[in-house]
Specification:
Blueprint lengths: L1 H61 L4 H26 L5 H20 L4 H19 L37 E5 L7 H6 L7 H10 L4 E7 L2 E6 L2 E7 L3 E4 L6 E8 L2 E6 L5 E9 L4 E9 L7 E11 L19 E4 L5 E2 L5 E6 L14 E4 L16 E5 L6
Antiparallel strand pairs: 1-2, 1-10, 2-3, 3-4, 5-6, 6-7, 7-8, 8-9, 9-10, 11-13, 12-13, 14-15
Helix pairs in contact: 1-2, 1-4, 2-3, 3-4
């Protein structure tokens, strides 16, 4: 009888263990399915936000909306894109959580408030509903339920003065925006870096020092997709996020690009002679800034890095950066035309600025289209069905 009891006990133990294994396997499979679903949602969310932003900004400009309103909504959309990028980065490191999802929802509520105060056409509203639907799906995977009935008040009309007139609230600033002072005690010593490379004290050493030198002060202004940089070593220079810009210091033409990825800003030299980039990464809730300079050229055996650290001294970008809308380069949808008949004779034989052709086109099969990519595409992160942007150069019928 005792032996029979032991056999039953053993059978039950194996049965329970088997059920636990099956249950854990099913749970792991469910987690894998959820992870794939979340990645698909994030990809769709990025492209849907891009489509919504393009349509909304075009609609606002076409209707002669207030420039400040356009600035505000571009800042809010940039903030939303930043939150999605941070979530994506954390998910890649398997560190994402409910707080990241709530950050996305909070940023989206700000856009929702703008649309509530500034009614748009049905297409724009449907595009925004698609964004909200994806955010709801993302939130459901983390047991978060967005409450779209409560909104963040950062737009005109959400607050009023004593006379009942709308009062413009301060726009949300990008975390990088501000003025920074070098913290030499935490930064790498430039002399030690140069002396450790053994390139002597000639022109090459001077060139390396000029590339790696950290200015005493830095100012950064990020407004939507517009970026302006200044320092105690250089006057303000403005970029459109992801667009190339030609500079001519000392008579040499350089191709430069500034790219925002979440909260991180990278300015890169695109010339073939050298590989030079500067990366700005905020920390401590934006109170500190880590700047990494990366330099490669023919007289160096390997890439040289120099890290410097800054403390934010002002939430407003100073050092000569003009905060007025007229002082910032606007992305007005124009392109630089190289057509001989469209030269700008007022400033010499320079390319003219021509309005972009906006609309829906059907391009015949076999048509060769030359274009410049505005979005980064690489084999590490790009997936099938990902959307990208490009500026068409030719044929002329589709240019822009």
């Amino acid at each position: 009888m005792k032996r029979f009891f032991n056999l039953n006990t053993a059978f039950l133990a194996y049965a329970v263990a088997g059920l636990m294994v099956i249950g854990l396997a099913g749970q792991a499979d469910g987690q894998r399915r959820n992870e794939r679903e979340v990645r698909d949602i994030v990809r769709s969310l990025n492209s849907t936000i891009d489509d919504f932003e393009y349509g909304l900004v075009y609609q606002l400009r076409s209707s002669s909306a207030d420039r400040n309103d356009i600035d505000d909504i571009m800042l809010s959309l940039s903030s939303l894109q930043d939150k999605v990028s941070v979530f994506d980065e954390n998910m890649t490191s398997r560190r994402e959580n409910r707080d990241d999802v709530n950050e996305i929802i909070t940023a989206a509520k700000n856009v929702d408030a703008f649309l509530a105060q500034n009614r748009q056409n049905r297409r724009i509203e449907n595009d925004w509903m698609a964004v909200k639907g994806l955010i709801n799906r993302l939130a459901a995977n983390y047991n978060v339920t967005p409450d779209w009935s409560t909104r963040v008040s950062t737009f005109p009309g959400t607050t009023k003065d004593r006379s009942g007139n709308p009062v413009r609230s301060a726009a949300i600033s990008h975390i990088l925006t501000g003025t920074y002072q070098l913290d030499a005690s935490r930064s790498e010593n430039l002399n030690q870096i140069v002396s450790g490379i053994n390139i002597g004290n000639g022109e090459q050493a001077k060139d390396l020092e000029s590339k790696l030198a950290a200015p005493e002060q830095i100012a950064i202004d990020v407004r939507g997709n517009q970026i302006t940089l200044a320092s105690t070593n250089a006057p303000p220079i403005s970029f459109i996020d992801g667009r190339e810009k030609n500079e001519a210091p000392g008579g040499r033409t350089l191709r430069v690009r500034a790219t925002l990825r979440g909260q991180e800003l990278t300015v890169s030299n695109l010339s073939n002679v050298t590989d030079y980039s500067v990366t700005y990464v905020p920390s401590g809730d934006g109170k500190s800034l880590k700047v990494t300079r990366r330099f490669t050229t023919d007289y160096l055996r390997e890439t040289v890095f120099a890290e410097s650290f800054y403390n934010k001294t002002d939430a407003v970008a100073q050092l000569g950066i003009d905060r007025n809308i007229s002082g910032v380069v606007q992305d007005d949808g124009t392109f630089s035309s190289n057509d001989p008949g469209e030269r700008n004779t007022n400033y010499g034989n320079l390319p003219a600025t021509t309005p972009a052709r906006i609309g829906e086109f059907i391009i015949p099969n076999g048509t060769i289209v030359n274009a410049i990519l505005d979005s980064e595409i690489n084999t590490r992160s790009s997936q099938n069905n990902d959307r990208f942007k490009m500026t068409v150069q030719s044929p002329d019928a589709y240019r822009g």
